[in-house]
Amino acid sequence: MSRENEKISYSEKTERLKVLGQFIKTVTPMIWTIVILVVIIPLLGNFLISQSLTNTATTAVVVSPPHDFSKVNQDIKNAIQQSHTTAEAFASKELDKWETEVIARVDNNFLDWYFDYFNQKKMEFTVPFTFVKSAVFNKFDMTAASQSVAEKLTEDFQREFANRVLVPKNAQMRFQLITQDTANLYIAEVSKNVKVVQNNYNIPQVHWDKYLNDIATTINDQGNISNLSLKVLVGGSGYLIAKPLILGMAAKIGSKVTAKVASKAAAKVATKTGGTVASQLGVGLIDPIVGIGIIIWDLWDYNHTVTVERPILREHIVEYLKDVKKSLLTNPETGIMAAIYQLESGILKSLS
Fold first, then answer.
1. Partners of residue 228 on adjacent β-strands
2. Contact 218, 211 (CB under 8 A)
3. Which of 71, 193, 283, 319 could form a disulfide with 79 if both were Cys (CB 3.0 to 4.6 A apart)?
């Protein structure tokens, strides 16, 4: 009985193992399917996502520079022009302040002196002596005698105009400071605006430095010729590099200002006597600014009263000063913007 029970028990166990094995064999494909769907495929997806994000981040940071730099060149030109406009507006505003101060001195000092009763009488008293002296010296050439009178009166006029209105030595220093401040502002603006162009195109620094190095301008500082790249100009030390040029130009400010007067004869007298007065005052660099003409209406028309003549003289002086201001700002050789013209002309030529 016992042996028979053992046979049954063994058979049952064997049968159970067969059933279990059959079950395992049946469910194995399902298990692997679940593993693939739940584990392996998500892992692969996660890996691909990670790689995609890495590649995207790299692409956003490292951008190859554009192959066609024509658009970049145009934007650099625009940046330089914008800088020029900003600097010129600053210089113009500074000269407006100077002009306002000068006109105030015309009203409050110079015209009072010129139309002072005793000054008028002094001029009237000295004219006959000047005329006779010149006539004798020139063998009674009346034209030459009249010219001498005009020159003497204009010279006195210019001397007082310079001392009372222009204050030449102070004016020269003022113009030089405006020139330096304008150049400083221009270079700072170029640096800022050029950086904006780089950021807009997202150009890597190494490519950008090479691009800027290829853009250069030639500086001619009193015969000393040197090259200045745009990279150096915008690199923080641009003003120091260009300083000799800027100071050289600043020292010439006003040396070619043209006096606007009513007649060619007056212009000749003003130019001749302006240089004489300037040398007497030790301000040769701004002698043409001193060279304002006095013969701007019929000089000794006694039918005019001071009330009529004073506004006329003031009007002509103000117009003259406006011409002076314009020349001081834009004269391509000796104006405040002259150094900037030279700096940017070469750069723009490199970009064309």
1. 217
2. no
3. 193
| Rounded Cα–Cα distance for residues 218 and 254 (Å) | 24
Mean of pLDDT values over 81-95: 96
Helix then strand then coil, in percent of the chain rounded to 5, is: 80, 5, 20
pLDDT, tens only, 37-75: 655 665 555 555 555 545 544 443 444 545 467 899 999
- 176 token code pair: 């030089």
Helix (H, G, I), strand (E, B) or coil at 352: coil
Kindly give the residue spans of alpha helices, DSSP state H, lying in 138-263.
Answer: 142-161, 168-201, 205-213, 230-233, 238-250
Burial of 178 (C-beta count, 10 Å sphere; 0-12/13-18/19+): buried
Residue 128 corresponds to which tokens in the numbers above?
A: 């006959």
The answer to whether the beta carbons of residues 212 and 190 sit under 8 Å apart is no
Confidence of residue 330 (pLDDT cuts 50, 70, 90): confident
Q: What's the one-letter identity of residue 105?
A: R
pTM for the model? 0.72
Q: Token digits for 84?
A: 């020029």
> What percent of the chain clears pLDDT 90, i.e. is strictly above it?
18
Between CA 326 and CA 322 the distance in angstroms is 6
Residue 275 CA to residue 287 CA, distance in Å, equals 5
Mean pLDDT across 175-200: 92
Residues 153, 123: contact at Cβ < 8 Å? yes
Residue type, 280: Q
